[in-house]
Amino acid sequence: MSVRIPITGIGVIAPGAIGIDAFRALMTSGRSAIEVVDRFDTDGLSAHKAALVRDFKPRDYIAPMKMRRMNALSRLGVAAAKLAIEDCGATLEADTGVAIGTAFGPVQTSVEYMQEYVEKGAALAPPQLFAESVANAPGSHIAIEWGLRGFNVTLTQRESSGLAAAMYACTQIAKGSVRMALIGGVEEANEMLFSVLDRLGALDDEQRNGIVIGEGGAVLVAGGGMRKPYGTLSGFGIARDTTASISDWGSDPQAILKAMRHAMKDAEIDEVDAIYASANGSRRGDAVERHALERFGKPVVPTKHIFGEYAAAGMLQLIAALLAVEEGRFRNVLVNSVSAGGGIVCAIVSRF
Amino acid sequence: MTGAGIVCSIGRNKEEVWRSIVESRAGIAKLTRFPGETFPTDIAAEVTETLPKSKRLSRTDLLGVIAAKEAFEQASGAPRENAIVSTGTSTGGLLEGEDYYFQRRARGRRRARASRVLQQPTSGPSDAIARAFDLGGGVLSNATACASAGAAIGMAADYLRAGHADVALAGGSDALCRLTYSGFNVLQAVDPEPCSPFGANRKGITLGEGAGYLVLERWDDAIARGARILAELCSYGASCDAHHPTAPAEDGRGAEAAMREAMGDVAIDYVNAHGTGTLLNDSAETKAIVAAVGAAIPVSSSKSYFGHTLGASGAVEAVITVLALQHQIAPPTLRLRERAPDCPLDYIPDTPRPMALTNVLSNTFGFGGSNVSLLFRVGPAASRP
Q: Which of A5, A150, A333, B314 is close enough to A178 for a disulfide, judged by CB 3.0 to 4.6 Å?
């Protein structure tokens, strides 16, 4: 990119951590937020673990009247945005853009709408549920809450959704369309998603390795800000593994290497100190990334054993990398996101 | 722009669609997709062609693949290795997700076929198209409600300019599903008769389905490989009303900002409006057009032909806009018997209008107040009058 984009505020509603200080403590504690699911019934399923957000009280962040119009994803997004804006300490400009990522979006809201549809009829389902059944509802609520009139987009690129949102927002700042942007990710673990992925054999259980579902909301303030930036987003690369099926990972490490190298070229750097790996426990996904990382020969930092896959749509992995450069552990790191279906997005996070 | 493809209720490809446009033939009829279910309204703009059966692809995926195939074939020889797919969709495979939901209610979660839900993610169309054409540049999926495909096209152009890709297959697709058909009805946003955008008696939208795709390349790259350039995507504007989750800002401020960003200081000859047929949209968009472009500009809504194709609309209507540039004919607004008092512009009623078109805007707006306006310029292959 022609410019490095400073990250001046972070808001986190994560499994095991609410707020950036708690998240920083989680990342250094050696703890994992993965635990046995008690929010919904997993009887008869093979998997029973997830990384769930606990102790999140939306009313601490959102006025009750507004909260009633929001689904869980919108509440996570607005609360994380509030924390991020407070953390940045600056007033957002009116033309600030918003880019949000979500892998699965409002699955639970769609399920609730269809329940009403069946029970009350197609003409009597609640309009409020329909309004929240679009994936961009969280981004919309964030814009309304803070009067943000810049671009407002929602990216849904599976495991890479958060990084894809970051890439778009940074491209807009670099292009000069806006000076500031909120970059976010939201995800909700729910019974429908959990049971379907379990039936498809994608989840980690006693018999085999697999994904552990995470959830949460996270928002970054890009540009502006009153505090010293955590770090900068300096470059991005995208590619696709053409050996992937539409629902699983492929087997070509060259595609991952291509995206990684493109991100470094975009950031105008020749070397990185470490790679925050996509590694999520999936059998094919981990195997193909491992082959790519072996050829790269740099220290590898996994994070998803702490907060699961899909946590805040992948934003938590990016935030972990930002904290690492802020704390001086690394100068430049690569953040990898390799998706089922073959999509790959890589980002460079640099010390400010 | 070196390729374009389209499928919607008025045709399976550009040729059929344009023939319907010049013959002022709409594709709106009785809803057939959900037999046995009762909705307050019963018309839609459905794609009536039988799509190939697929265990892995949703109807939205399949519509996307059809339009993308036409576009990619037209851009003959476009390199695949660094080609990205940038897709917009509002519902993805929600239709198949509903089937799974009903099956689960009937059989329980252990006996319902979970593989049906593989088709549901809104990332499905991008993955399906990239796989169909063996494209290695990356996939991007935009789910910004009805502004999705417009945003996807703008995003693709940005990534070409930034050097993240060499070619982009950009557009969108959406299939009709129960949730959206019911949802717009419970919002009382559906006209019981075929929609009449900007009309005095307009009552809402007609729901449609379809797909549109464009092949985008950097100008110099397209010239260097000898590609035929259909039109130029010059720029785009993106904004948010920051007003209401489902209703547009009544003063049209967000739409105006998107149009101003797209057009810069370029003189505009025609606006392909979002023009949904709802009371609020058409009034707000008219105000935005007057403020950004002026009151003398010819405007029309091609949704009067094929309804509101939701997340695909930005791409379907971009293809219509490009066809208008190529043929130097502005499509009309059908069924505009009487303009509404709050819609005083020249909406090109009933019949196509031959006119000199150089720079044109294509508007697309969505829930959440997201607005995208695309600026297209006539290409060297246009048939000037």
A: A150
What is d(CA B153, CA A61) in angstroms, rounded to the nearest whole number? 35
Q: What does the alpha-carbon distance between residue A100 and residue B144 come to, in Å, rounded to a whole number?
A: 10
Domains and CATH numbers, chain A: 5-222 (3.40.47.10), 231-350 (3.40.47.10)
Give the tens place of pLDDT for each residue, B4-56: 999 999 999 999 999 999 999 999 999 999 988 889 999 999 999 899 988 88
Nearest CB neighbour to A240, from listed B94, B135, B187: B135
**Non-local CB neighbours of B256 within 8 Å, separated by 6+ positions:** B287, B288, B291, B292
* Cα–Cα nearest to B237, from B256, B216, B219: B256
Contact flag A150-B239 (C-beta cutoff 8 Å): yes
Query: How far is A183 from chain B, CA to nearest CA, in Å?
Result: 15
pLDDT digits (tens, 9 = 90+) for B328-352: 999 999 999 999 999 999 999 999 9
Q: Is B274 one of the annotated active-site residues of the chain?
A: yes
pTM of the model: 0.97
State the DSSP H helix or E strand holding residue A6, giving kind and residue range, or none if neither.
strand A5-14
Question: Quick one: which H or E segment has residue B327?
Answer: helix B313-327
| pLDDT tens-digit readout, A174-192 | 999 999 999 999 999 999 9
Annotated catalytic residue B240: no
- Classify A159 as helix, strand or coil: helix
| B243 carries an active-site annotation | no
Residue A46 near chain B (CB below 8 Å):
no
